[in-house]
Every structure is written in structure tokens, then in C-alpha cells.
Amino acid sequence: MIVPKSFKNTYEEPPDRLRDLVKTALEDGELQQNSSRDRLLSDHELHVKLLSQGNLPTKNMILPVPYIPSRVSIQDAICRKIHLVDLKVESRDADTCILLRNITSPYIYSSTIMVVEDKNGDAARLTISNLEDTMVDPITPEGTLLAVKQPCWTRLADGGYHIRVDHPSDLTLLRSDDKLVPSAWRAVKEVDKSKNVTAWKKEGDMSFLKKQFRKALECYENGLAYLEMHPSLTSAIDLYRKKSGVNIILLRLDDAIKDLSSAILTHFSSLPAPSSPETLNPGAIEEWLRNHSTEDPLNIATSLPKGLKELAARIKFDLGIYSDTPTYDLSLISSYVGPLTLHVDAANYTLNTEVRQSEGHGRGMFAKRDFKVGDLICAEKAFVLPGYLIQDPSSDCLLYNLGDGTAAPRPGALLFKELVTKLKYNPSLRKAFFDLDDGGYWVENGYEINEDEEEIPVDVFRVEKIRRLNCFSLPTRSSDLLHQPPNSNPELRNGFWIHASYVNHSCLPNSVRTFIGDIHFLRATRDIAAGEEILHQYISPDIDIEERQEKLRGTWRFECDCTLCEVDGAVSRDGRQLRLKLFEELKASVMRLGEKGTTVTAVKKIARGYRQIEALYDEDVYKGLPRLALVHPSLFLTEAWRGVKNVDKTMEYARKLLRNFGILVKTEDGKLEIEDNAGIINVEGVRALKYLAEGHKSKGDEEISAQCLEVARTWYLIITGSEVGMSDFLKF
Ligand SMILES: C[S@@+](CC[C@H](N)C(=O)[O-])C[C@H]1O[C@@H](n2cnc3c(N)ncnc32)[C@H](O)[C@@H]1O
Q: Per the database record, which ranges form the SET domain (predicted)?
């Protein structure tokens, strides 16, 4: 087929044009003439052809103006069945549903697009958004029967209309024997009766190797159907095991549990009579797989073959195993993790923290016991952390939210899609996710919260709200950040941790979060008493209080009320602006120096500028608090004095650097003392301690030097999550 030169890809929607459409779409509600069937089909064919030729743009995932998912069941009598001729422009009725049949091979890129027909033979374009789908293993191959709830004609940016499905629960794939399916469509595709179980298994395995996971599931199911007529326990165990493994890959843990449970029951029924634990039934096995513990009260695992035991362990780790000891082999975990291997088989440790109402911050996380500086407060495996190669352009995508005009780059867009997929296929995991802060979205949109609701619907707009308010940005391993060249801006991943989502923000935190692959560690940066709220920094604080409050307001809709914000906020506007002006001037001088190279005279000039800013901080007011406008200048001066080998000045400015983070260091009577340790612990602080250790050693104060290094080691662990690379980092 020749693609005409004038061809325009109207399947990849330009967000700017859609944004304009959103603004003008309000007057709608009329019936609309659709394109002809022939035109739709030829247009579709061209798009599929173009896609198969490669040359793919960045994926634009688009969330339109929010609407609530339909809550009626398609099987309910109140759910009115309508046809394509009944659809109205930009107007949806939550009690309606349309039955459709896909008559094309789908186009799968930013979304899944196909041409469908209804019972009357009318045709239309259907776009399914927000679901993981692939051309090699499409969710809706040609011939698929679908029911779409609350359908409406949605305007396309380049003219024309389509039915657009955003909420996964508004779409149901129908089996051909479903009573809703019109009789004309019931010409059931006969299962190939000539195939025996071995043939189905083989075909399933081949599909699996070609990454056609859904096809593999279908083959294994056909194999199991064959076994109903020709029973074989060994084959049944094998097929259930394979299905369970495929479901894990597809993130369908609820289904994987059912399959594994069937495999285990079949296994026990194949053994001589008393081998099976007494009260074994599907419920008991499911309970064991979901008990979040290594405990096995019914002693199921012991007599399982290796394959089933491994699957059980995989599922248990994916659902989270909770341990009561904070013991982790950090070097080993760290050595497993790489750009494509984020998954770590490690247990969660959360029992010494609890979530409860905090004062003025909504819910928060609280200490249930005392923690010492450096202690692990909690550790948790990710709910979702998408794996992809950061340099790989084929995973480039953006998520446009037309409702609030925001756009999330690749890390957020991929996290959103994987969250929607995981929630869609695992109703059992929805409650914990949807309990999180959605910024009031659901209530504001009139959705009644029903605690007993059996199946919480997956509202994609709500998922996105929760993602934005609760996700973390992270490197593959926190220690990787220490090895980045200065001023480099590496792309960070976006991941989701449920327990950690309850930690509130403070610019003066008492904990620091780190990541090794998909495990999150939170450590105490100072001693914390039982009952205290655990706080970390959502973002490192800007020097300018207005800017930092603006950032917190913009993303999280609150203003920080920590002591630093209180004190910074009490400085007059003129005073703050003078600080900023001097800071900017000093920064420009440092930049100019960078071009010429550093001399002692030049460093002294910067030190004068430093003192000018320092004079603007009232030491009584800022006692024990960070002086953020002095952090970068003191950092520069510490390195500069070290560069010209002036030990005393290096130590003086290293101490000042720590002071500017709110950490007072005294080295009197041959002892290191860290006073008022309420400040901010980060890599610069660790480096400052290392320089102090180096300086004291060169002066023969071995003991203080060793004490500085000891504190530096604890801080290194706090900020990277492990000891990996510590001795190299602290070497001098
Ligand atoms: C990641 S959630 C933290 C848990 C949340 N408090 C809850 O009840 O689920 C982020 C939200 O918590 C609230 N929050 C966090 N830190 C806060 C603070 N320092 N002051 C006021 N609200 C805060 C804000 O509403 C923010 O959008």
C-alpha cells in the first residue's frame, strides 16, 4: 500500500489543539453525523500501515477534562443499551452502554485505536486510553466484542469524532457466549478440537517466548479445558503454574493467586492421601499467599515442588512481606540493582511506625519507639516502579492533563500507566491505594465515599491526582547521585510507595529517604522519641521562602510551617531581597572566577562577600537554624581553601558549611560535639566532616579526626541507604 504524501497522522492527538477544543466544547450535546464506514476503514488501514513502518513520535498520553466512572453494571437492567446513532457530542450518560465489535486490527501507540461496528452495522472510531497494550499482544484483537459504558462522541483535534474511553472500568471485554452479545455476533470461534493438552501447552509456550502473554494465557486455558475431558493431574499443575507466571508478568496478582492456588490444590490431590494439610482449600491457600509473612501455619510450602514454591515466594514478595527486624544485607541488595533490574527480594519493615492524624498536616507517620540518629525507621518495597532504560527513546512519552493544564514527563507518565494497569487488574490492592491523599478530588467531584463498596472503581483522574501528590522521584540507587558530575541533571525515575506516602514535609526534617532499586529506606537524621512525627523534605528548600512556599503550594497545596519557614518568613521583605541580591552577586563573582581560575586574592574577595551576607543573619534568631543563602558560598570557600591547601581555612569553612545547614560542630577538649543537631543532613555535610577529619589528622588530632569520620559514616549511610562506596568517598 502506498501512503499518500498528504497523509496526516490524526491518531496521535496534538495536546495544544485538544486544549483549544476543551475550551470550546461546552455548548455541545447535539447528535452528530459520523464519517462513513469506508472512510473510517481506509483511514485506519493507513494509520496501522504507517505505524508498522516505524518512525514513531514521542507518545502523547492525554487526560481530558475529568469525569467520574460509571458505577452501573452492564448486566443491570437499568443500564440502557444504546446504539451509535444515539450518541451525543460531549455528553455522557452514566446509565448507558453500547455493545461493539472491533472490525480492524488495532493501532496501538499513544492509545489503542480501532474501528468498531454496532448491531445496526454502523461504524465508528473507538479510542481506549491509559491501558498498557502492545501490537504483538493486543488486548482487543480484531473480532473482540466490547461493551462501553457512558459512551459519548468526543471531538477530535483534526475534525471528526470518536468514542473515547478513559476509565478502564467503563470498558468490558465480552465473551462471545455472554447473554448481552447480539445473536448475529454469536458465531462462536470454535476451539480447535484437534489439539491435545501437549499441543496447547506448546503453543502457549511459543506465544510466551514471543511476548504474546495474553495469547499464552488463552492457550493454557484451552489446555485446561481439554483436561476436563481427559484428566491429567501433572498437566493441570503445569498449566496452572504457567498461567500464574504469565499473570505475574502482566501485573495481575489477583489472577496469579487463583492459578497458583489451583496448582497447589491439584498438587496435593495428586499425592497419597494424608500428605495434604488438613484444612487446605482455595481460601486457606490465598490467605497464606496474602499473609505478608514468611509464616506458613498450614505448612504448605514444605511439600511443594520447586516451581510452585518459587512462584509462591514471588507473589508473596510482590504483595509485601513484613519483617519485625530492620536487618538488610545492603551491599548484596545494592549489587543486584542495575538500570534494568530494580526488583529486590527484600521484606518490608514498618512495624515501628504508625499512621495517624497529625496536627495540621492531615494524616502523618509517627514513631512507635525511640530512634537514634542513623537508625532505620522503615523500609518498604515499591507498589509500582516502572522499569525502563533511561536512554531508550522508544519509551519517551508525556502525559498531558487537559483538566488542569499540566504535563508530566516520561517518569510520571510511565508511572501513571502502570498504576492504572495494576489497579485495574487487582481489585484487592485498590483500597490501600485509594485511601491515600487525592487532594479532595473525589469528594469535590461529588463521588460519594462508600466504605463498604466492594469494588472501588479505577478513576484515572483520581489515580493521577494521587500519583502527583504521593509519588517519589528517585535514581536507580541513591548512592549513584554521589557519582554524578556537578551540575548534571540526570533523569530520575518516578515510583510509588504506599506507607511512605504518609510522611509529611518539613524543611527541617528528622529523616532522609533513600532508594536501592525498588526498596525505599527511611533513616533518622537525629534522635527521635517515640510518638514524634516523622518528617522528610519533599524538595530541598529554596533560599527564598516565597519561592519554596510557592513550590509546595503548587504541587501539594500547603505551606510549610516549620521553624525555619517561620523565622525566614518573619524577616522583612527588604531584608530578604537584600540577602538574595548579595547572594546573586556573589554567585556571579564565583562564576567569573571559574573561568579565570582561583587565586588566594580572589578567594579572599569571595570571603568578604560571604561575610556581608552573614551579617544579615541575626545569630540569636537563627541559632541552630540553617542559613540557606550562605550554603553555596561556604561550599565554594571550603573547596577553594582546600584547593590552595590552606588547612585552617578549609576547616573553618567546613565548620561554617555545617553551621549553615543548621549543624553546630564543636571540637573542644579533644572531643567532637554536634550541638543542636536539628539541621539538614546531606552529601555536602558528609564532605565537610571528611575535610574536618582530614584537617584534624594533619594537625595530629587523631581522636577528633576519627570521631569526625565516624559521624560521616553514619551520615553517609543515611543519605545513600548503604555503605557501598563509603570508604572511597571518605578517603583522603
Ligand atoms: C504525601 S501526602 C502526606 C500524607 C497526607 N498528610 C495524608 O493525610 O495522606 C502530601 C499531603 O500532605 C499534606 N502535607 C504534607 N506536609 C505538610 C505540611 N508540612 N503542612 C501541611 N500539610 C502538609 C499536604 O496536604 C500534602 O498535599
A: 351-539
